[in-house]
Amino acid sequence: MSKKIKKRKEIAKILQEPKGMHDVLPVDEMYWSRIREVVSEISEGYGFHRIETPLLEFEELFQKTVGESSDIVAKEMYTLKTRGGDMLALRPEFTASTMRAYLGHSLGRLGQPQRLYTFGPVFRHDNPQAGRYRQFTQANFEIIGGQNDPVYDAHIILLSMRFLDILRIKGVSLRINSIGCRVCQPAYRRQLQNYYKSHEKELCADCVRRAKTNLLRLLDCKEQGCVKLREHAPNILDKLCVTCSAHFKSVIEYLDELKISYVLDNTLVRGLDYYSRTVFECVIEAEGREFGALAGGGRYDYLAEFLGGHATPGVGVAVGIERVIGVIKAQGIVFSSKQKKMVFVVHAGEMAKKKAFRFVEEFRRAGIYVKESLAKDSLKAQLKFADKEKARIALIFGQREIYEGTVIVRDLENSLQETVPLDRIVEEIKKRLK
Ligand code: AMP
Questions:
Q1: Ligand 1 pocket check: which of 134, 323, 327 to mutate, most ligand atoms within 8 Å of Cβ?
Q2: Which of 22, 118, 132, 396 gets the highest tally of CB atoms within 10 A of its CB?
Q3: pTM of the full predicted structure?
């Protein structure tokens, strides 16, 4: 390989994002800013307060909560040893960090429950493919503390569906299940284990491993043989204890009351150690393309105890933002950006350019939306740019006007123009843009 080709290859590599991680370019800003608006609309409307946790946490936090046998902890965490010898992990999700912060800062002493939300990147060393990245963004909503009342499960499900609805996403289906509690789940697990033991030869290699480490996950394996097997597997919904059964029934009744349709899916388990009782996902399948879940969540009443805290109920959801944006694009949803009324500052000549530069800043400080292309010297080029930017008014700082202490105000809609004294220009523009 010639030196030149080698060099070119090296440069090409440097310009790439790491596998499974993506730049967000200005061309997508329309989607991201709408999403941020919806996050604040939902959090305000449903009474959630923002909490921010570090990108890095002790690795142990996720081992103790998400669970050593989960794919996230067993295969997908980015971990590092600090110079001081601590083992840290880039957060692969938010719930464990939120609960750590809740316990660590004694948020339980404040009004209960606490409704907390987060928005930001999470990291999983997954196999990148469509809708599956190594760095992606989640909006997380958690209700922690107080009672384990089913109304909170319904509350979280409602806001998840509303989130997608506000964005005008079509064809969202809610899948819901209950995976029981400490009382009923062990007996169910034993039955499941016996069932799969007698069918071990028909399981895929992954499921043979999971049977020992993360038994419930056998139910959501996508391999054909395993899908077939689970048709006759014991059904968790038949095995719930009286309390879990009543809890789940009540969640369903709230959904009925809100006219939220759902699919009872007894194969939905979600595979993280901290879940109990309600688990759900908001899934979409459009034009034959499988997008996977847009949001997923559930109840985690034992999570606080995993971290040495008192029994503290909790329920929450994580919405996957890149997947949501993928669906928005696939469904051709566009968000009309409110065209702000804007003035465009134009100059003719070096002295006028300096004055124009100063006035651009004065306009900004006066709250006037202003743009310029002062680096362009040709008046024609500047006016063309103003037109392209759909400015309402052009302010032309000319050499003569500078001497006279004036500026030309040109209405770009009807091309009428007049000369206005510079000391009145801010007021004049404000009046015209009203
Ligand atoms: P989870 O924390 O796995 O329940 O994921 C919650 C949501 O995050 C999912 O419903 C997806 O929308 C999104 N998500 C999960 N994993 C990925 C990934 N690897 N890449 C992009 N989005 C993801």
A1: 323
A2: 118
A3: 0.90
